[in-house]
From TrEMBL:
Domain BFD-like [2Fe-2S]-binding: start-end pairs: 491-541
Residue ranges annotated for the FAD/NAD(P)-binding domain, each copy included: 121-436
Record keywords: Oxidoreductase
Designated name of the protein: FAD-dependent oxidoreductase
One Pfam family linked to the record: Pyr_redox_2
Residue span, FAD dependent oxidoreductase domain: 601-956
Any one Gene Ontology molecular-function term assigned to this protein's record: oxidoreductase activity
Lineage of the species this protein comes from: Bacteria, Pseudomonadati, Pseudomonadota, Alphaproteobacteria, Hyphomicrobiales
Length: 975
C-alpha cells in the first residue's frame, strides 16, 4: 500500500502537538498522530475504504459521528470498531471489518455484577450547545446534574474542539472554537459533571416513576436515575439517495468538517462540496484554508438571485455578526479560487472502489461532471430522538422528510413527564437557538424541581431573534432544484443494501407500512437502525405523508447504538413462568383503516401466521374469507418471532418448571413435528424460499443434575414419537465446536430447525390472497354479536362486517374477543423479547437451548445470531406497545455468552419485543361454548404450529374432518 501524501492541512494559529506513532493497516506500516482517531489517521494516508459490506463492496467514513457504522475496522482482533470514534494508539494492528474473517476477540470484560443505580437531579443526554448552556444554568441553580456524551470531548458537532493531536499557537482566534471552550469551562466551573465516552444505550421509566438511563461509559455499564432528563442529542445529517452515495470518499458535511476542523486532515486531494446552506461554505473554507483543492461548491439554492435583499436585511437585523460572517465566507472562498455553482444538485456519484466523478444537474436541466476523489454532501439534518422515544415521548412525522420530530411545548417539555428536549433534536434551528432553548429548558426544569428557575425572558428573546434569522436564512437558501427521485438501482438502506427497486416492488404488492417493508426486505435492520433509509422508504410507500402518524415509524429499539455483548452480560434471577400483562390497552397511533366489506362467509380476526394459514386453507375450500387485523399482516407476534422450528420440549415445558406438569406441552409434540413437515411442503408448493433448515437442535447441560433432566426429557419425547438422543461431550464438540466446554452433555433432536418468519408468513398471505382471501388492516374489533344465524363484527374505526363463521386468532389478545361472546378464554398475553447480534462467520449450525436456563439461539443465513429463550418483556405505559427490558437483555446475554463464548466478540445490534400467548403449554382449538360457528385458534408455539393450526381450523370452519383427533386441545380440558 502506498501512502498518499499531502492530505494534512496547515492553518495559521494551529500547530501539530503530538508525536508521530506507527500502526499497521491490512499489514502495511502507516503513521498517524497521537490523539487523532483511526479514521483521521487513515484518511491522512489516503485510505477511505474500510468496512467490507459484501463481495467487491466496501464502505468508508460517512457520518463521522458514530451513527452510520460504515467506518468499521478490526483492531487487534476486536471487530466492529468505529474508526471515526476510536483513538489511534501505538502499534495497533488494524484491518477492514469483514464478518467473514472476524477474529471474535472479546470486546469487553464481563461485569461481575449489575452496576449500582446512581441518582442525580438532572441527566442531560448530549453535549452540544443546548446541553452545555443547560448544564451551566442547572448547576448554578443547585441541581446535581450530569451530562452524558458519547464523544471523547464535549461540544457536539458545532462546538467540536480541536483534537489533542493539534493545539492553538496561543489562544483560539476562531470565535467558534473560543465560544465552545468558554461554554465547556463555564459548565464545569458551575459544578456540572461531564462524562465523555458515555453512551446512553437504553432508557426507561423506573419503578420510582423517574427516567432511568442505561449507560456504557468507556466499555463499562452503568445506570443513572434522574428526576428530570434533558435530551439534547442534536441531529444527524440527512442522506442524499443518489447512485454512488455509498462509495468510499463520499461523506457528510459533518464528517468532512470534523476531519478538516478537528484533525486538520483533508478527505482527499480534490474535494467537491455540495449541499444546501452555509455549513457547506464553511466546510469548503476550512479545507481551502488548510491547502486542500476544493473543486467547487454546489449549492442547490440560489442565494444570489434577484429579490433576496429583504431577507439579507432581515438577517442583518436579527444577527448582524452572523450575516456579515456569511458575506465574508463567500468573499474568502472567491479569494481561494473556489467556484460556487448555485442552483445545482448532485445526481450521481461514480467511481471504481471510491468516488471519482460527480454528476450534477442545474435548475436549467443542464448536467455537468466534476472530477473529485472526495465529496462532502450536506443536504440538511434529521433530529436524533432514540432516547426520547424509548422513554415514551410522543413524536410526529415530518411530512417533508418522513422522519420523527418531537411533540413539545415552548419550554421544551415533552409529552412524557420529567423529560425535556432542546437543541437540534427539538427542531433544526442553529446554534444560537439551541443555546437559548437549553437555557429555557434548564430554567423550567429547576422550577419543576422546586428550585428558583429565574427569568427566562432574555433567553426567549434571544431564541426569537435566532429563529427570525433562521427564517430569513432558509428563505434565502430555499432550494432552486429538487433532489432527484431514486433510480431503481439506487441503494436506499446502506446497511442491508436494499434498493429503490425492491421498495417499489413491495409497494406494488400492497405494502404500505415500514414494519411490513422491514420484514420483507430487511430495510432498517442494520447497524444504523433505519436512520438513513426509513424516511425515504416511507415516502416511497405512501407518497403524501400529511396524514402519517407515530405508528407509521419504526419502533424505538435498544440498544440505541451497537454495544459489546460482553459489557452487558450480567447473571439475573430467571423467572418461573411467563409474566402476564394486561392486553386491553390500545397502542398509541393507528394503522390506516382499509375499507371493511359488508359480509363474508368467514371472518378471521388476526393476521398472523395462524390467521393467514386459516385463510389460505379456507379460501381453497371455497369459502369467502376476510382477515381483519388492527395492523398489517404478520406485524405482531408472528412477525416478531425468531423462527425456531421446535420439535423437542424446551426446558420450561418439562418437569417442575412446566405448566400443568408438562403434559399439555408433551401432547403437542406430534402436532409440532407434523407442522414442520407441512412448512416444508408449503415451501415447495408455493415455490418459495422460507430458509428452512433442519440441522438439528441441541439442548445443553453443564452438570450431572441437568444431564439427568435431559435424559428424562428425552425419554418422554421418545414416548410420543420424537427421536431425541442424549450425546456426550466429544460428540457435542464435534457437532457444535462453538459450544462452551463447560457443557458436558446435550439432548440432540435431528428434526429441529429454523425458518425465516419474514419470508414464511408473507408467502402464505400472498397464497391466501391468490385463493381469494381479503386482508383488511386498521380495525380494532370492539363488538362481536350473534345476529340470527350470523355474527355482526364492529370496528373502532367504523363499519361492520357480517359473517356466518368467525375464527378468533388474535394471539395474546384473543381473550378479549371471547369475552365479547360471554366466554372467558384461558389465554393471556405474555410479551417476550429477542436479541440480535451483528453478523459474523458461521459458528452455530444447530438450534441451541439450555437445560436449566432460559435460552434459545440460532444463526441466521446472513450471519446474525438470534437470541431468545422466553425472557420477559413489558408493555410501555405511554405507547401501549411491547417493550424490551434492560434486565432481560442483560440476563439473556449472560446465558448466551456462557453457552457460546464467541459471543463476547460480537456487538448487540438490536432487540425487539412481541406479545406471546400463554395458555398451558398446548394449543386451544375448537368452538366457543354456545357458538358452534365461532372457532378459537391459539397457541404459545405459534410459528412452528402456524400452518397446522390453520389447516385444522379451516377444516372445522368448513364442516370437514380435520384429519386428526383434537379433543384434547379444546376448551374441555379446562373443565
Amino acid at each position: 500500500m502506498t501512502s498518499i501524501g499531502g492530505l494534512r492541512l496547515v492553518s495559521p494559529g494551529i500547530a501539530t502537538a503530538a508525536e508521530t506513532i506507527g500502526f499497521t493497516f491490512e499489514g502495511d506500516d502507516l503513521t498517524g498522530l497521537e490523539g487523532e482517531t483511526i479514521g483521521a489517521a487513515l484518511a491522512a494516508s489516503g485510505v477511505l475504504d474500510l468496512r467490507q459490506a459484501g463481495v467487491g463492496d466496501r464502505r468508508g467514513l460517512f457520518c463521522g459521528m458514530g451513527a452510520c457504522q460504515d467506518c468499521l475496522v478490526e483492531i487487534d482482533g476486536k471487530g466492529g470498531q468505529r474508526a471515526c470514534m476510536t483513538k489511534l494508539a501505538p502499534g495497533m494492528q488494524i484491518k477492514r471489518h469483514d464478518p467473514d474473517r472476524n477474529a471474535l476477540a472479546a470486546l469487553a470484560s464481563r461485569p461481575e455484577a449489575e452496576a449500582p443505580l446512581e441518582e442525580r437531579d438532572v441527566a442531560i443526554v448530549g453535549a452540544g450547545p443546548a446541553a452545555l448552556a443547560a448544564a451551566e444554568i442547572l448547576a448554578r441553580g443547585g441541581a446535581r446534574v450530569v451530562l452524558l456524551d458519547e464523544r471523547d470531548a464535549p461540544g457536539g458537532q458545532y462546538f467540536k474542539p480541536l483534537a489533542p493531536s493539534h493545539t492553538f499557537a496561543d489562544q483560539p482566534t476562531d470565535k467558534q472554537f473560543a465560544d465552545g471552550l468558554q461554554r465547556r469551562e463555564a459548565a464545569l466551573a458551575a459544578g456540572a459533571e461531564i462524562r465523555t465516552g458515555a453512551m446512553v444505550w437504553q432508557a426507561a421509566i423506573g419503578s420510582a416513576g423517574h427516567p432511568e438511563l442505561a449507560v456504557l461509559s468507556n466499555g463499562t455499564a452503568g445506570r443513572i436515575a434522574a428526576k428530570a432528563v434533558l435530551i439534547a442529542t442534536g441531529a444527524y445529517e440527512a442522506p442524499h439517495h443518489v447512485p454512488g452515495w455509498t462509495l468510499p470518499g463520499v461523506m457528510t458535511a459533518g464528517a468532512a468538517q470534523t476531519l478538516a476542523r478537528a484533525y486538520r486532515v483533508s478527505p482527499g486531494h480534490r474535494v467537491l462540496v455540495a449541499g444546501n446552506g452555509p455549513l457547506n461554505w464553511q466546510v469548503a473554507l476550512e479545507l481551502a484554508r488548510g491547502g486542500a483543492t476544493v473543486v467547487a461548491v454546489l449549492e442547490s439554492a440560489r442565494p444570489s438571485r434577484l429579490g433576496t435583499l429583504p431577507h439579507l436585511l432581515g438577517m442583518a437585523r436579527a444577527a448582524p455578526a452572523l450575516a456579515f460572517e456569511g458575506v465574508r465566507m463567500r468573499a474568502e472562498l472567491m479569494r481561494h479560487g473556489v467556484p460556487i455553482h448555485e442552483g445545482m444538485i448532485v445526481t450521481a456519484l461514480l467511481g471504481e472502489g471510491r468516488v471519482q466523478t460527480v454528476e450534477a444537474r442545474g435548475a436549467n436541466g443542464r448536467v455537468r461532471r466534476f472530477e473529485a476523489d472526495a465529496v462532502s454532501l450536506g443536504y440538511g439534518f434529521l433530529p436524533s430522538l432514540e432516547v426520547l422515544r424509548m422513554l415514551g415521548g410522543a413524536v410526529e412525522v415530518d411530512p417533508a422528510t418522513g422522519s420523527a420530530r418531537p411533540r413539545r411545548d415552548e419550554k421544551g417539555r415533552t409529552t412524557r413527564s420529567g423529560v425535556w428536549v432542546a437543541g437540534d433534536g427539538a427542531g433544526i434551528a442553529g446554534s444560537q437557538a439551541a443555546l437559548a432553548a437549553g437555557e429555557i429548558a434548564a430554567r423550567d426544569i429547576l422550577t419543576a424541581l422546586r428550585r428558583d428557575g429565574g427569568d427566562d425572558a432574555p433567553a426567549r428573546a434571544r431564541r426569537s431573534q435566532a429563529l427570525d434569522f433562521q427564517r430569513h436564512l432558509w428563505t434565502l437558501f430555499e432550494p432552486a432544484v429538487k433532489a432527484p427521485e431514486p433510480k431503481p438501482d439506487t441503494v436506499i438502506c446502506r446497511c442491508e443494501n436494499v434498493t429503490a427497486y425492491q421498495i417499489a416492488a413491495m409497494r406494488d404488492e400492497g405494502v404500505e407500512d415500514l414494519g411490513s417493508l422491514k420484514r420483507r426486505t430487511r430495510l432498517g435492520m442494520g447497524r444504523c437502525q433505519g436512520r438513513y433509509c426509513a424516511g425515504r422508504a416511507l415516502k416511497m410507500l405512501r407518497g403524501d405523508l400529511s396524514g402519517a402518524s407515530e405508528a407509521d415509524l419504526f419502533a424505538p429499539q435498544a440498544p440505541a447504538r451497537p454495544v459489546p455483548v460482553a459489557a452487558l452480560a450480567v447473571e439475573k434471577g430467571e423467572w418461573g413462568g411467563h409474566r402476564e400483562v394486561p392486553t386491553d390497552r390500545i397502542p398509541r397511533g393507528a394503522h390506516r383503516s382499509d375499507a371493511l366489506p359488508a359480509r363474508a362467509d368467514l371472518v378471521v380476526i388476526g393476521g398472523g401466521v395462524t390467521g393467514a394459514a386459516t385463510a389460505l386453507y379456507a379460501a381453497r375450500a371455497g369459502m369467502d374469507v376476510v382477515v381483519v387485523d388492527r395492523s398489517a399482516p404478520n406485524s405482531q407476534a408472528s412477525g416478531g418471532n425468531a423462527g425456531s422450528l421446535h420439535v423437542q420440549l424446551l426446558s420450561w415445558d418439562f418437569g417442575s418448571k412446566a405448566m400443568a406438569g408438562g403434559s399439555p406441552a408433551q401432547k403437542t409434540l406430534s402436532l409440532q413435528r407434523d407442522s414442520v413437515a407441512l412448512w416444508k411442503a408449503l415451501e415447495v408448493e408455493l415455490s418459495s424460499d422460507f430458509e428452512i433448515v433442519t440441522t438439528g437442535g441441541l439442548m445443553v447441560a453443564e452438570d450431572e443434575a441437568q444431564a439427568v433432566f435431559l435424559r428424562q426429557k428425552a425419554a418422554a419425547e421418545r414416548a410420543v414419537g420424537i427421536d431425541t438422543q442424549v450425546i456426550g461431550r466429544e460428540e457435542l464438540a464435534a457437532l457444535a465446536p462453538a459450544i462452551s466446554q463447560r457443557m458436558v452433555v446435550a439432548a440432540y433432536c435431528a428434526a429441529e430447525g429454523k425458518i425465516n418468519p419474514l419470508k414464511g408468513t408473507p408467502a402464505i398471505v400472498a397464497a391466501a390472497k391468490a385463493a381469494g382471501a381479503r386482508f383488511i388492516a386498521g380495525h380494532q374489533i370492539t363488538r362481536i354479536e350473534a345476529s340470527g344465524a350470523d355474527y355482526a363484527i364492529s370496528s373502532a374505526a367504523g363499519g361492520e362486517i357480517t359473517a356466518t363463521r368467525v375464527v378468533l386468532a388474535a394471539g395474546g389478545w384473543t381473550r378479549h374477543l371471547g369475552q365479547m361472546l360471554g366466554t372467558n378464554l384461558p389465554i393471556s398475553g405474555a410479551p417476550l423479547q429477542m436479541l440480535v447480534t451483528e453478523p459474523t462467520r458461521p459458528i452455530l449450525k444447530q438450534l441451541v437451548a439450555h437445560a436449566d436456563r432460559h435460552l434459545t439461539m440460532k444463526q441466521a443465513s446472513n450471519g446474525n445470531l438470534i437470541i431468545g429463550g422466553a425472557w420477559t418483556a413489558g408493555i410501555h405505559e405511554e405507547t401501549g406497545y411491547s417493550r424490551v427490558l434492560r434486565e432481560s437483555i442483560e440476563g439473556n446475554l449472560w446465558v448466551a455468552e456462557r453457552t457460546v463464548p464467541a459471543m463476547a466478540g460480537l456487538h448487540l445490534l438490536r432487540s425487539w419485543a412481541a406479545m406471546n400467548i400463554n395458555i398451558d403449554g398446548a394449543p386451544l382449538l375448537g368452538a366457543l361454548p354456545g357458538h358452534p360457528n365461532v372457532l378459537v385458534a391459539a397457541t404459545a408455539n405459534g410459528y412452528t404450529l402456524g400452518p397446522m393450526m390453520g389447516q385444522i381450523t379451516a377444516a372445522l370452519a368448513a364442516g370437514q374432518d380435520p384429519g386428526r383427533a383434537i379433543e384434547y386441545f379444546t376448551l374441555s380440558r379446562f373443565g
